[in-house]
């Protein structure tokens, strides 16, 4: 199986447990790995035969920017589910891995990052 990596998608969003996180917001970073078969576009060299990853980036930006979940786990799950939703005319994504990072978590004395990583397969209908 082949992969496409989308790294460093930075978005401003409102997910967090603290009330001020859902009002003031903060920066997040999303990295995505998509598993799919790229043999056809590898031979044809046609954009219509591959995945339009601009759609994936726009979906992530929209979800991070409009969601107000308490947990990163919930936001990461919503991103994964939306990416795995099959779209007509698009290559089917067999599996997705999401790494969702809260760049500056409001935890006293902690200057690091917090990342949630999850991997989800596409469940056939």
UniProtKB/TrEMBL annotation:
GO terms for biological process: folic acid biosynthetic process; tetrahydrofolate biosynthetic process. SMART domains: FolB. GO terms for molecular function: dihydroneopterin aldolase activity. Pathway: Cofactor biosynthesis; tetrahydrofolate biosynthesis; 2-amino-4-hydroxy-6-hydroxymethyl-7,8-dihydropteridine diphosphate from 7,8-dihydroneopterin triphosphate: step 3/4. Belongs to the DHNA family. It comes from Oscillatoriales cyanobacterium SpSt-402. This is 7,8-dihydroneopterin aldolase. Keywords: Folate biosynthesis, Lyase.
